[in-house]
Design brief:
Blueprint (H helix, E strand, L loop, with lengths): L1 H5 L6 H12 L5 H10 L38 E11 L2 E10 L5 E7 L4 H14 L6 E4 L8 H10 L2 E4 L9 H13 L9 H17 L11 H8 L1
Helix pairs in contact: 2-3, 4-5
């Protein structure tokens, strides 16, 4: 077939159908083209998928128990978590953070060069060291780290209940997105960083500022730290 030879065998039956129509004005059903190509022994040269011999990781998806109820009545009642990337000097770092919805305080954070499961697990472990996590509702998206068995088992071990956004719905975790937006506009985008150490120092400095010095109207113009102290 001329089309097959001219394009060196990369055309499948659907593209051959289009070619016949465009070049010769022939209207023919794609099923007939496929049958004729089969009779002529013509088959498109395609890149074959490599077989996967490993064991696929099991995943767990939790319900959206937070359900956009972003107000909490007490500390360590509702936490939200997410990951954002920080691009600088042609490189990239990943910032994982956990926020308490009672006073918007950043309970824990972790920075890594890799967006992997360890990044998330280390963040949860840090939060648990700082706060009593038993009974906390921890909300996230459906990223592969959060749906992993290791993550699920860690939360169960700490007595934390998992909650997840609906797939592809960023508004279900708007509070965490809001914090990352504040950090980037008030800090990260204002500086030119040349090393990972500079970025890490800026994150540390900003989160301290956010927790201890940044007044929030939602907290009666108190800082997260002041609001927590007053509640205690």
């Amino acid at each position: 077939m001329a089309c097959y030879e001219k394009l060196k065998g990369i055309c499948g039956y659907r593209r051959v159908k289009v070619w016949l129509n465009r070049i010769y004005g022939i209207h023919i059903n794609h099923k007939r083209v496929r049958r004729l190509m089969g009779e002529l022994g013509i088959k498109a040269i395609i890149r074959r998928k490599k077989p996967y011999y490993g064991k696929k990781e099991a995943y767990v998806i939790s319900g959206n128990h937070l359900n956009r109820e972003f107000k909490a009545d007490q500390l360590n009642q509702k936490w939200v978590t997410d990951i954002t990337y920080l691009i600088f000097n042609g490189r990239r770092l990943y910032l994982s953070a956990i926020q308490d919805l009672f006073n918007n305080e950043i309970v824990a954070y972790q920075i890594s060069r890799r967006n992997d499961l360890s990044l998330v697990l280390d963040t949860v472990k840090k939060a648990r060291k700082r706060q009593d996590a038993r009974g906390v509702l921890l909300h996230s998206d459906q990223g592969f780290q959060y749906t992993s068995r290791q993550y699920t088992n860690l939360l169960k071990r700490y007595g934390i209940q998992a909650s997840m956004s609906r797939k592809g719905n960023c508004w279900d975790n708007a509070c965490m997105e809001n914090f990352f937006s504040h950090f980037k506009t008030e800090c990260f985008y204002l500086h030119a960083f040349h090393s990972a150490q500079q970025v890490e120092h800026a994150v540390q400095k900003y989160i301290h500022f956010y927790n201890h010095e940044r007044f929030q109207e939602k907290l009666n113009n108190l800082t997260p730290y002041e609001y927590r102290t007053q509640a205690a």
